[in-house]
Amino acid sequence: MCRGGSCARPQETEFKMKRIYLDHNATTPLNSEVADEVCRCLREDFGNPQTLYSYGKDARKLVHDSRETVASLIGAKREEIIFTSGGTESDNMAVRGVAYGNINKGRHVISSSIEHHAVLESCRALEKEGFEVTYVPVDENGVVRLDELQKAIRPDTVLISIMHANNETGTIQPVSEIGRIAREKGVIFHTDTVQTFGKVKINVDEMNIDLLSASAHKLHGPKGIGALYIRKGIRLKNLIFGGHQERKMRPGTHNVPGIVGLGKAAEIAARDMEGGGNKVLLLRERLWEGIKTNISHIRLNGHPAVRLHNTLNVSFEFVEGESLILGLDDQGICVASGSACTSDSLEPSHVLTAMGLSPEIAHGSLRFSLGRNNTEEEIDFVIQALPKVVERMRSMSPLYREFLKKQGKT
Ligand SMILES: *Cc1c(COP(=O)(O)O)cnc(C)c1O
């Protein structure tokens, strides 16, 4: 993979159909500057950062610098960053670590109905182990109800875990406000910022965040590496046991190439945040205009304005998201559906149903998530391909025929 001083690219792509990738909330293509750094590190800096000689020192410096970059992106101190294997591990560590680390105060946790499964399933596991969890509902735009959150706080509440931007709808939660409420009541506040880290300005002090999860592969970095910010003084129980790495919170030999990749991805994100974001926003609005103009019986899911600049979630009545995905894939277009955002589950999305959508409408939804490499030409191709796919699927739908018949009668 890393022959001859640079990462050789496979040649086979020339024979493939041109593909349009609009699923950046699932994962992002590796930035080539990041790839170069990671490859260089894999080849040259194999040392274990825990060792005393020069190879160890070199590796240690890389880990140190990456930690500094990650910390500075969110206004944190270097010692407050722990490297993990990704967003899922960071979320598990935050939710379960805080719950078990503060058991003397109580066994009550607050989260929301629209969290990522990494948080939701961590909460479910706690429930089985004797904790109580309150899942705060959201409004029709997918925004957590602050009045309900206030009401849920009890003397034995140890943690509030509410995400920054939702991965399915892009709706941005009032995190500063939630942080303020948590601080007022003396409750620890964790937020999953996997979808916003490096895309939206975050400052852990201004936003009263005590713990924060991030992942490199949602940010044009490598997979299998992430970070957890833990505010100094927050009590947390470690979940795994071993050596002294990461203040014993997360033992195990450092994934140095991954850590380097996360640092580089964070550095590039900080550099490009504003310009890149605006470009993506224009493309997304172009796509939405095109869809609105050319397709009837649709609805936008998520907050119309307070939303991640790259995300567009739309329901198409009378069709199944899965068949739309396959129809679009035939055209080389890669998007996600509203069915739990996984390819192996047919449950309607818990996020969309929590917003009050019927299971049928939730099933007929698509998530377009754009990235900085998308172009106007790609978006225009989607705008002309999508209506035909939707029309073809609808023409096969008994529900749609019935609807047309009814309309003809009135
Ligand atoms: C992708 C994602 C995760 C999981 O991150 P991994 O690094 O893939 O484990 C967690 N939370 C949100 C909001 C995500 O989008």
Detailed description of the structure:
The protein has 410 residues and is an alpha/beta fold. It has two domains: 32-269, Aspartate Aminotransferase, domain 2 (3-Layer(aba) Sandwich); 273-405, Aspartate Aminotransferase, domain 1, CATH 3.90.1150. 41% of the residues lie in helices and 13% in strands. It contains twelve helices and 13 strands. Helix 1 (32-44) packs antiparallel against helix 7 (256-294), helix 3 runs parallel beside helix 4 and helix 8 (321-330) packs across helix 11. The longest helix has 39 residues, at 256-294. Residues 1-7 have low confidence and may be disordered. The site of pyridoxal-5'-phosphate has 16 residues, from helix 3.
Short synopsis of the structure:
The protein has 410 residues and is an alpha/beta fold.
Low-confidence regions? 1-7
Report the CATH superfamily of the largest domain.
Answer: Type I PLP-dependent aspartate aminotransferase-like (Major domain)
In the CATH scheme, the class of the largest domain would be Alpha Beta
In the CATH classification, which architecture of the largest domain applies?
Answer: 3-Layer(aba) Sandwich
**Beta-strand percent range:** 5-15%
Question: The CATH topology of the largest domain is what?
Answer: Aspartate Aminotransferase, domain 2
| Total number of strands | 13
Number of domains: 2
- The average pLDDT value, as a whole number, equals 93
Number of helices: 12
